[in-house]
Every structure is written in C-alpha cells, then in structure tokens.
Write a structure and sequence with these properties.
Layout (H helix, E strand, L loop, with lengths): L1 E11 L8 E19 L5 E13 L9 E13 L5 E15 L7 H4 L2 E10 L7 E9 L8 E8 L7 E10 L9 E10 L10
Antiparallel strand pairs: 1-2, 2-3, 3-4, 4-5, 5-6, 6-7, 7-8, 8-9, 9-10
Length: about 200
C-alpha cells in the first residue's frame, strides 16, 4: 500500500482590485496507507492508518519563498456503519526534518499536530441525505497561535458536484502568511467528492 500523492492549493483574490492568485502551495508526498487495519464484524468501528513524508513550498523564490519537509503519522477511527451516520476522528502528528531559511519559526505557528473531526452521512446518489461537516483544529508550539477550519458539504440529488462552505479563523491560512492571523469565508463546488456509495 505505497502511494505517491500531489496536492496543490491556490488562493485566488477574486474580488480585490488586483484579482491575482495570492498564494499557491505545492505538496508532493509519498506515503503508506492501510485502510481497515482493524474493523469490527458489525462494521460499526474501523481503524485506518497512514504515514509518510511530504514536501511543501510555494515556489515564489527569493524572500517570498516558503518551504518545509515533514514526516507524519495519521490514524483515523470511524464509528458507525457505511450508509448510516458516521463520526470520525483523524489526528495527525508530524516532525520537521528540513525547514526553509525564510520560515525557520514555522513550528511556532503550525505546531506538530492537528485534529480533524467528521460527521458524515452517505446515502444513495440521488438521495437528499448526503452531507458532511468537518472541523480541523491546529495549534502552534507552546500552545499559542491556534487555527480553526470548518467545512460543510452537501450533495443535492441528481447533481454530481457537492456544494461546500468553508470558514477559517486563526493562523496558517496560507503558506505565504503562516505567521499572521487571518479569517476567510468561501463557497464552492467539490467536483468529485462522493465517488463511492455503500451497496444495500
């Protein structure tokens, strides 16, 4: 179960006088993933485990460059059977093994761990009962500089994209301004968020 991954996040300042991409983060990774490492027979509890290494940079160069290398471990526990209301907790702990010269204090703001919690209901594709609420909490080294992100996703029946609302408050919203407090509210579509549905 060895995987290569790539994640890119771009912040587009669409409603400003200069509608440019404010910051972009590039994150290639390599990781091992063990789904269903432990599952109860009644499928009301499941433990997954993931661990690997990740690079993150914004590719700006010069004084605006931000970059880190991390190694991480990420378990996930899910309560509830597929097709019913499920609750999941996903902590993630990491260590930095290479930090760029322009962000040597990043651990003070990103810390060494975060926690995500999910409340999910996946029904049939054309049901009205398809939604997820996700919360993510991260705090910097020393117990300061918290960051909270909340996502709410809802899939309308007979409509493939999933509607999403996201709110962020705290530090680390963008890689470019990891050490500054910010907040943001976004509305958008997830094009491939509900790819699998439980068979009945």
């Amino acid at each position: 179960n060895l995987y290569l991954g790539y994640t890119q996040t771009s912040y587009w300042d669409l409603i400003s006088s200069d509608p440019s991409f404010f910051d972009t983060s590039y994150k290639p990774s390599v990781f091992v993933y063990f789904p269903g490492l432990f599952t109860r027979e009644d499928k009301k509890f499941q433990l997954d485990l993931q661990g690997g290494a990740e690079h993150e940079s914004n590719g700006r160069g010069g004084a605006m460059e931000r970059s880190i290398y991390t190694a991480y471990l990420q378990p996930r526990v899910t309560f509830g059977r597929p097709g019913h209301l499920q609750f999941a907790l996903q902590p993630r702990a990491w260590t930095y093994f290479l930090v760029g010269p322009n962000n040597p204090d990043i651990a003070q703001y990103r810390g060494y761990a975060d926690l995500r919690a999910f409340l999910t209901l996946k029904a049939e594709p054309n049901s009205w009962a398809n939604f997820q609420v996700e919360g993510r909490f991260r705090i910097g080294d020393g117990g300061e500089h918290p960051g909270v992100q909340i996502d709410a996703r809802y899939k309308f029946p007979h409509f493939n994209p999933t509607f999403q609302v996201q709110y962020f408050q705290g530090y680390g919203q963008t890689f470019r301004q990891y050490n500054k407090e910010a907040h943001g509210l976004r509305v958008g579509l997830c094009l491939w968020y509900w790819p699998d549905y439980p068979s009945r």
